[in-house]
Design a protein that fits this description.
This protein has 497 residues and is of the alpha/beta class. It has helices at 6-9, 20-24, 37-44, 54-58, 65-73, 77-85, 91-97, 101-104, 122-136, 163-174, 191-194, 203-216, 232-238, 267-278, 301-312, 348-356, 419-423, 452-455, 460-479; strands spanning 155-159, 178-183, 219-222, 241-244, 250-251, 264-266, 293-297, 317-321, 359-362, 365-372, 378-385, 399-402, 405-408, 412-414, 447-449. Helix 5 (65-73) runs antiparallel to helix 6, helix 6 packs across helix 9 and helix 7 (91-97) packs antiparallel against helix 9. Bound molecules: flavin-adenine dinucleotide (FAD) and iron/sulfur cluster.
Length: 497
């Protein structure tokens, strides 16, 4: 029996990272191999098993956090992993990459002068369980009874192989349907493959999951662009339902003078090349930052991934310009517990930036323009303090930094324009995302939209939740009933005021 008062006696401890200097010499994951099980058990035992577990409702997947914490604390790893896999198809991705809104909502994280106890390290327990399930063979391909062709099961096409498409495909395959995933890239995985760098997610973890899907019977057709190589009419004629999970990777532009100079690139172009190098497709990226002064414009995950990548490529210097002011160190008044607050977080890339002494992060910085060097390529970036009223440049505060490579990481405006949308009768809304109803249905009967394509650029945990929910909607559409779980509706949003 785990100690129910452990939260009073055991301090929170998190998964250890390798030394930042060592990390810069390779592309391996930043974390040391998982902590020993007794340490994970002790951390899981800090869970108070609250009557109203806000961690559970803050997780879009509805992960059964107190349940698996208790089982892990008691050392019943198999049962704990089973409870985890009951709600999450890919906990090895969320355990590594989720910003963990569950931890912000943990009752132990209610901050006030008198309470200093820190949240349960939920995400680390999740990762330990996920990795152990793989090691022990508990997360194995499930035997699937195929219904397709026997009157009940149907044929389903999923367009896009990011976490939303893959989760939908796995759920529908396991429900007995014949599922084919179409992916325009040469490898499956979406942003897990060509967005997030290997130092945050080693790609063999993705490959083994794809192998599992194939073994269960999901067909993955890579290098096939739906809407171009396979028209929408063919998808509709050949399948009983179509799920569009094409992501939201249309990059927000920065229309300032010099935008077209050689040397100014969207961040996604840069990260895709870096990931291709890591996959062994090329020895060196055509956009390598090696020896260059680099400026990254933007402040989110994408910017941080560019930073960590540029440092590994041995950039001469890296400056990150974030238009937002420095976030507070603690919850602001308008973001009380259990909301996931906007507070300053040091990413692993920023930690490395400090270790390399090669970078600077400038907050409240408005980019004014890009200037050519003597060779006509990019030579410098001009920026100024951002006026808090309109985020425009404040006169008299301009500075210039040398730059031979600029990476634009200003966020995403929605799905990239695609002939497929008109072919399937889909339309984008005012927010740039593909429109759908609360049950993920869009356009003509039998067409559904899931993931970032319908929600806007979001998080892996939301993409998996959307994939699971759309699978339930598709199954119900095809059979008239479903036993598949639907953790969210299409309009569900994070806890907030
Ligand atoms: C650099 C970066 C870092 C991130 N880091 C994190 C993080 O640390 N934690 C986190 O939770 N989230 C992170 N995110 C967000 C997360 O990756 C996304 O929210 C998630 O991948 C969305 O999943 P999805 O399946 O909807 O779309 P995607 O992952 O974008 O996948 C869509 C797929 O559809 C394919 N496709 C598009 N059109 C077609 C077509 N016509 N035919 C065939 N295939 C098509 C695309 O090639 C792509 O493979 C990050 C995003 C970026 C860009
Ligand atoms: S998926 Fe994210 S929100 Fe859900 S339990 Fe894991 S870390 Fe927390």
């Amino acid at each position: 029996m785990a100690d129910r008062m452990a939260f009073l006696t055991t301090p929170r401890s998190e998964r250890e990272r390798r030394d930042a200097r060592e990390r810069l010499g390779d592309r391996r994951e930043v974390y040391r191999p998982g902590p020993p099980l007794p340490v994970v058990s002790a951390q899981a035992a800090r869970c108070m098993d609250c009557g109203l577990p806000f961690c559970h409702s803050a997780c879009p997947l509805g992960n059964l956090v107190p349940e698996w914490n208790r089982l892990a604390a008691e050392g019943d790893w198999h049962a704990a992993a089973e409870r985890l896999l009951a709600t999450n198809n890919f906990p090895e991705f969320t355990g590594r990459l989720c910003p963990a809104p569950c931890e912000s909502a943990c009752v132990l994280a209610i901050e006030s002068a008198a309470v200093t106890i820190k949240a349960v390290a939920i995400k680390n327990v999740e990762l330990a369980l996920a990795d152990r399930a793989w090691e022990q063979g508990w997360d194995r391909p499930l035997p699937v009874e195929r219904w397709a062709g026997r009157g009940d099961g149907r044929r389903v096409a999923v367009v896009g192989s990011g976490p939303a498409g893959l989760a939908a495909a796995q759920q529908l395959t396991r429900a007995g349907h014949a599922v084919t995933v179409y992916e325009r890239e040469d490898r499956a995985g979406g942003l897990l493959r060509y967005g997030i760098p290997p130092f945050r997610l080693e790609k063999d973890r993705l490959d083994r999951r794809l192998d599992q899907l194939r073994e269960e019977g999901t067909v993955l057709r890579t290098g096939v662009w739906a809407g171009r190589d396979v028209p929408g009419s063919e998808l509709r004629a050949g399948y009983d339902a179509v799920v569009v999970a094409v992501g939201a990777t249309a990059c927000r532009e920065l229309p300032v003078p010099g935008r077209d100079l050689p040397g100014v690139h969207p961040a996604m172009e840069y990260l895709t090349w870096a990931n291709r190098v890591a996959e062994g497709d090329r020895p060196v990226s055509p956009l390598s930052a090696e020896g260059l002064d680099v400026v990254i414009v933007g402040g989110g995950d994408t910017a941080a991934d560019c930073l960590g990548t540029a440092l590994r490529e041995r950039a001469a210097s890296v400056t990150q310009l974030d238009i937002n002011p420095r976030p507070p160190g603690r919850r602001a008044a308008g973001q009380p517990w259990p909301v996931h607050p906007k507070v300053e977080r040091e990413t692993t890339s920023h930690e490395e930036c400090g270790a390399a002494e090669a970078g600077a992060r400038v907050f409240a910085a408005a980019t004014v323009g890009f200037e050519p060097g003597p060779d006509g390529r990019l030579g410098a970036v001009r920026f100024a303090e951002a006026d808090p009223r309109d985020r425009g440049p404040r006169p008299g505060t301009e500075r210039v930094v040398p730059a031979r490579l600029v990476l634009l990481a200003l966020g995403f405006t929605g799905p990239e324009p695609d002939a497929l949308f008109a072919q399937l009768g889909l339309a984008t809304g005012p927010d740039g995302a593909l429109q759908r109803d609360e049950g993920f249905a869009a356009g003509p009967a039998g067409v559904f939209v899931a993931g970032d394509a319908g929600r806007g650029q979001s998080l892996i945990v939301w993409a998996i939740a959307e994939g699971r929910a759309v699978a339930a909607a598709v199954d119900r559409y095809l059979r008239g009933w479903t036993e598949l779980p639907a953790p969210i509706g299409a309009s569900a949003r994070a806890l907030g005021l």
